[in-house]
Design a protein that fits this description.
Blueprint (H helix, E strand, L loop, with lengths): L1 H13 L12 H7 L1 H25 L7 E2 L8 E5 L5 H14 L5 E7 L14 H13 L4 E5 L6 H4 L2 H5 L7
Parallel strand pairs: 1-2, 2-3, 3-4
Length: 172
């Protein structure tokens, strides 16, 4: 498996920008060609789920809720990032995340204000866009939203949060 991964990466890096058509384009395709990797990743996923369940059992009596992004049943709160997405994509992401939630799981959706390090992303660059994104999240199953990277957001952008969430998201 190690050799297969190394060979794949060597070919990929040697051909950046000119990917050979014979190379897998997705992780799923690569795993189909190397089932031992899929089995290994499944073992890792099981270990993570077991560890998270043990942590939850220890903290739940203290009233602490466990949250995370992975598809792990022990999470009380599922987190879905929607950084740099248009409202339409926010709606799609939130709807899909809500479908993956188990009964009783809370769904929080994260946004980043202002500049985006990814030139392909659509940053929240106005109070209207902030409101549209929050509305898309609320209408498609989010229980709450959060805004990320306060330290990199201009003060003016931080003022967009209160009107963006007004009347949209309620606490359980």
């Amino acid at each position: 498996m190690r050799r297969a991964v190394r060979r794949h990466l060597e070919i990929y890096f040697a051909q950046v920008g000119k990917r050979p058509s014979s190379m897998p384009k997705t992780m799923e395709q690569f795993q189909a060609e190397h089932p031992e990797l899929a089995r290994y990743l499944a073992v890792l996923d099981d270990q993570v789920a077991t560890l998270i369940s043990e942590v939850r059992a220890a903290i739940h009596p203290l009233g602490v809720k466990l949250e995370g992004v992975e598809n792990v049943p022990a999470y009380d709160v599922r987190v879905q990032g929607a950084y740099g997405q248009r409202a339409e994509e926010v709606a799609r992401l939130v709807c899909a995340a809500r479908k993956r939630c188990l009964p009783g799981q809370y769904l929080r959706v994260g946004f980043c204000l202002g500049q985006s390090p990814d030139s392909r992303a659509m940053p929240i660059d106005s109070p209207e866009r902030a409101r549209q994104c929050v509305q898309a999240a609320a209408e498609n199953g989010a229980d709450a939203v959060f805004f990320y990277n306060y330290s990199e957001s201009p003060r003016e952008h931080l003022r967009w949060i209160k009107p963006a969430i007004a009347g949209m998201i309620w606490s359980r």
